[in-house]
Amino acid sequence: MNKNRLEAFSDGVLAIIITIMVLEIRTPDGTNFKSLLKLFPVFISYVLSFIYVGIYWNNHHHMMHTVKKVTGGILWANLHLLFWLSLIPFSTAWIGEHHFAAFPMLFYGFVLLMCALAYFILQHQIIKKHGNESLLAQAIGKDFKGKVSVVLYVLAILSTYYHEVISAVIYILVALMWLIPDKRIEKLLDND
Fold first, then answer.
1. Domain that holds residue 46
2. Are 51 and 21 in contact (CB under 8 A)?
3. Where does this polypeptide localize (predicted)?
4. Using CA atoms, how far apart are residues 2 and 12, in angstroms rounded to an integer?
5. Do residues 134 and 140 touch, judged by C-beta distance below 8 A?
């Protein structure tokens, strides 16, 4: 199977996810700066989630450059990832509207954790099809950032029982860790 349909579908779903997130931001009740300021938690949650969706889109795009053939397992793993990513607008709206309350922050972290695990499963399916010597297998190596992200998400989820600000800081930290462009796949593709 060709990977073009998978890429096009994924890009479309990610574009819709971003659109849904921005549509969740309601206009202020009033017409002054104070009424706009009340939307600050909603806007901050949107920015963080926009960055996360952008990171997944960017990494998915790079990963798809390593794919030669698509299997049913890859298709289902990709749908699994898109399912969890599609919950980001809901969890984003929840944390924003409730000013980063503990349980919405826990749920947000759970969604981010599941996105990370789903991405790992997709990587595994691609490597399973293309082999341990494939470009993707070489590029991710031991996948230190991926493993650290999962550990940090679990810590963030657990920290909501102490203080939700700690989880927010961890979510931001993971996003910043992935915001730095990962050149591993690009370097291998340039050498190929």
1. 4-191
2. no
3. Membrane
4. 17
5. no
